[in-house]
Here is the input.
Amino acid sequence: MSLTTFIGVLLGFGLFAGAVMLSTDNYWIFLNFPSLVMVTGGVFSSTLISFEIRYVWLAIKNIGFILITPKVGRYLLNFEVGRMIRWGYLMQSKGIPALETETKKAKKQDPFINFAIELLITGYPGDNLRAVLENTVETTFGRNMVQVNVLKFMASAAPAFGMIGTLVGLMVMLDTMGGDPTKLGPGLAVALCTTLYGVLFARLVFLPAANKVQQRQEIMRFRNLLLVEGFAMLADKKSPRYIQDSMNSYLDPSIHFDIDKQLKRK
Here is the structure.
């Protein structure tokens, strides 16, 4: 579980709930089922009109996935550099057949690495391999960003439908003005619930989820582009130290891979 994300969710909703509890003893005025239906129903209806159902479903699933720790972390990039260097040594000493045997596990775990190794085994030169893999990275990133766009659309739609619900509530309230005036206050409170729900969903659910998903996709894109450089250099039969220095140039100095340190440990 992503601890920071979980803490953020707890703080966001916890602080809101705490503010409500400190402000009034009548907590139930903040719970209104028709308001909730109007906001959620309106958001999902407009989203289904705007996007294909497949992408809407993937976007909704990603709201839950943001609570899971991402696969690609800061120090995994260091690991990827080390793995490329190890494969470089293997190719120098034993050639492509040995690399194919060594990478069987990695190919099963990662479709991108599987595709890259297949291109490498085919014998593409570095420039051609880089062009194909870069296109794969960018098109994959573009497809995955559709889910981010869906979540951002939902974030923009939620306050709008909250306002629509408020307008409906105000119209109903004004229609009863000829009756008991004491009902105007509670009626207005119910009408404002939809605006409240719309803003809460937008700012504590949809938009944060969109930003988190986008950030993770950008990290994955960076990692894959780093691998592209590594595979291109393997195809050109560059030396392991050249691979190290070239790939390290993409990373923060604090996570640079150092062949000499690894040799000393052994």
Residues 1-28 form one domain. The radius of gyration is 27 Å. The mean pLDDT is 87. The chain is about 80% helix and 0% strand.
